[in-house]
Design a protein that fits this description.
The chain has a single domain, classed as Immunoglobulin-like (Sandwich), CATH 2.60.40. 9% of the residues lie in helices and 47% in strands. The protein is mainly beta. The strands form two sheets. Strands 1, 3, 5, 6, 8 and 9 form a six-stranded mixed sheet that branches. It has a three-stranded antiparallel sheet with strand order 2-4-7, with no helix packed on it. Belongs to the NPC2 family.
């Protein structure tokens, strides 16, 4: 085994940690839950630079204030205060890290992917991510600024 200098190990560890830093986000109407943390990886700085042809990991830690049999995600690109639906591979929250039924007072880690397709325009916008319960009420809603780039 080749010895690795300690400064290099520390630098690599710091770089890996920077990729998983909690994001500054705007809560846009969480009613039935409270967001504890939002992570988008990789997104070391804000606005997040989203490269076309790449998929990003989303991890939201939240606490539920209600009971719900299920949950569904809705994602939008917000431009000029208009929400444009943004398809994601798995909208079912119960297939995205959340053990259903959702119980009041429990914390959950919601995990999903945000694919950025090559045909998307290079543009600055706001990503708005909602997770609704079985009564169509917001478990969480958050927004972050992004820039889609080649």
């Amino acid at each position: 085994m080749v010895p690795v200098p300690l400064p290099l190990l520390l630098a690599l560890g710091a770089a890996a940690t920077a990729l998983a830093e909690p994001l500054r986000f705007v809560d846009c109407g969480s009613i039935d839950g409270s967001i504890q943390e939002v992570n988008v990886s990789p997104c070391p700085t804000q606005p997040c630079l989203l490269h076309k042809g790449t998929s990003y990991s989303i991890n939201v830690t939240f606490a539920s204030k209600i009971e719900s049999q299920g949950s569904k995600a809705r994602v939008y690109g917000e431009m000029l205060h208009v929400d444009i639906p943004f398809p994601i591979p798995e909208p079912d929250g119960c297939k995205s890290g959340i053990q259903c039924p959702i119980q009041k007072g429990h914390s959950y880690s919601y995990l999903n992917k945000l694919p950025v397709k090559n045909e998307y325009p290079s543009i600055k916008l706001i990503v708005k991510w909602e997770l609704v319960d079985d009564q169509d009420q917001m478990l969480f809603c958050w927004k972050i600024p992004v820039q889609i780039t080649s």
